[in-house]
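During the reporting period the student researcher (J.K.) took over the structure-prediction task from the postdoctoral fellow and processed the backlog of single-chain submissions. One of the processed entries is reproduced below for the supervisory committee.
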Amino acid sequence: MPNEESTMELIWGINAIARLIGRTDRQAFHMVSTGQLPAKKVGGRWVAERSKLIAFFMNDAA
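J.K. obtained the following structure tokens:
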């Protein structure tokens, strides 16, 4: 499974997640804290997998 490892890119922090999805920090925080986005809190910071965020929006748009 080295291929899966190399494609997994973690996005750390609300600011980085917000930039990726084109939202403000406040909007992104609301979305992750209410479970609207696939993210988890790890050590006090929010983290999301880039591919899961992109897939989430691709499925949402379809």
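The committee noted the following: The longest strand covers residues 45-49.
J.K. will present the remaining backlog at the next meeting.
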